[in-house]
Amino acid sequence: MSAKAQDGLALVVSGPSGSGKTTLVKHLMLRFPQSHFSISSTTRAPRGEEVDGMDYRFTGREEFLDLRDRDRLLEWAEVHGEFYGTPRDEVLPHIQDGHHVFLDIDVQGGVSVREAIAGRAFLLYVLPPAMETLSDRLRGRGTDSAEVVALRMKNALGELAVLPRYDAVVVNDDLGRAVDEAQAIIEKREHNLERWLSGGGREFMKTGFGVEI
Ligand code: ADP
Ligand code: 5GP
To answer: Closest Cα to atom 7, ligand 2: which residue?
Structure first.
């Protein structure tokens, strides 16, 4: 990847199902109007009002495994019994063009993205105000069966264990406040890194460690 001062960031947003990632990302994209939403491929069935090619690319299992085997995915994981993956072309060309990319992906995916593009990844974790809020919100969303809600609640514990590996945490209690806070955190990351890189840090990383940021 060629490094430019204006390269964008891969902004990974993770957290237990029902914590409000989708809602938060939709609002954050209005605050960063040049940003792109990474449309994942998944084997799960469309839910509610979801549209193929807008919310997800809904694929069969064979098609998904073919994408994976042809190395078309930046990362992939099995989540709640289904396959989900981030196509490389949903992220790399956009950050190279200087645009941020929002990724609503699980914690396994977040860690893999950091391994793949370390200097350009920023991992934000969304927490609900209380764990009971999760099941209330999942039920309130009205798109999942009781079994699916139970599985997602059970998996929330495993997802919470990865929290310390994330760069920043936002508690999604009041939505407006959470969006403001996430925006401020991202802007701080943008400015601090770019200031350091353009002040000689980029050359230092390249010559000292052979790493291009
Ligand atoms: P996730 O993408 O993490 O599974 P969603 O964004 O779908 O979660 O949110 C789950 C439900 O909670 C949705 O019905 C959403 O409208 C609602 N919700 C999200 N954020 C808040 C909030 N801050 N306060 C109250 N309800 C919220
Ligand atoms: P949902 O079925 O609620 O849309 O998503 C279930 C979980 O899969 C969420 O935690 C969501 O962030 C995650 N997810 C969605 N797309 C991807 C992806 O491309 N890769 C990974 N690793 N997780 C994803």
So the answer is: 106
Distance (Å) from CA 84 to ligand 2 centroid: 6
Phi, psi of 34 (to 5 degrees): -85, 0
Q: Read out DSSP for 31-93?
A: HSTT-EE--EEESSPP-TT--BTTTEEE--HHHHHHHHHTT-EEEEEEETTEEEEEEGGGTHH
Ligand nearest to the CA of 42: 2
Predicted structure pTM score: 0.90
193 C-alpha vs ligand 2 centroid, how far in Å?
Answer: 28
Ligand 1 center from residue 138 Cα (angstroms): 8
Nearest ligand to residue 79 Cα: 2
pLDDT per residue as tens digits for the range 1-32:
444 446 799 999 999 988 999 999 999 999 99
pLDDT tens digits, one per residue of 93-118: 999 999 999 999 999 999 999 999 98
